Amino acid sequence: MPLSEEELRLLEQMERALVEEDPKFASTLRGTTLRQAARRRAVLAGFVFAVGIAVLMGGAISGWWQIGIVGFVIMLGSATIGLSALRGQTAGGAPRPDVTTTHPSGFGVIDGGRLHSRRSRRTRSHGSFMDRVEARWRRRKDRGGF
Asked: Using CA atoms, how far apart are residues 48 and 56, in angstroms rounded to an integer?
């Protein structure tokens, strides 16, 4: 159920008041600075990964295996940081398919004010694993098995 014109107007007023009162908090809610920081970390991690490859290859060519291990550790650390930055970027920065209206401020109106994830719908319609196991057990007992 979409919001009425009056509700949209009140929501826009509240958003403007929030931006005027605390712009840093509003930008955090928008997630723009967080996405940019995550993207920067991912790019920097990619660069450090390339440096780690160079150090690893330098250790292999020079015959000093200690340098190769240091290069591998550099690669492992940068890959971990880069993947966590990318994972955080897609989780918080991906456009949401359930946002119906986007306001110029960056805030969106969510369909009916409710946000349901796919997982919650799946667990509600099919039940949890233990619920399904218990249901099977009850059916088996009713049929005379075990």
From this structure: 12
- Number of domains within the chain: 1
| Residue 106 placed within a domain | no
Q: Is 70 inside a domain boundary?
A: yes
Query: DSSP assignment, residue 98?
Result: T
Please state the pTM of the whole predicted model: 0.44
- d(C-alpha 73, C-alpha 83), whole Å: 15
Residue 89 belongs to what domain range? 5-98
Q: With respect to residue 82, please indicate whether it lies within any of the assigned structural domains.
A: yes
* Residue 33 falls inside a structural domain: yes
Buried b (16+ CB within 10 A) or exposed e, 65-91: eebbebbeebbeebeebbeebbebbee
Cα separation of 106 and 25, whole Å?
13
- pLDDT in single tens digits along all 146 residues of the chain: 787 888 888 888 888 888 788 877 777 677 666 677 888 899 999 999 999 999 999 999 998 999 999 999 999 999 999 998 888 765 444 444 444 445 555 555 554 555 444 554 444 556 788 888 888 888 888 887 66
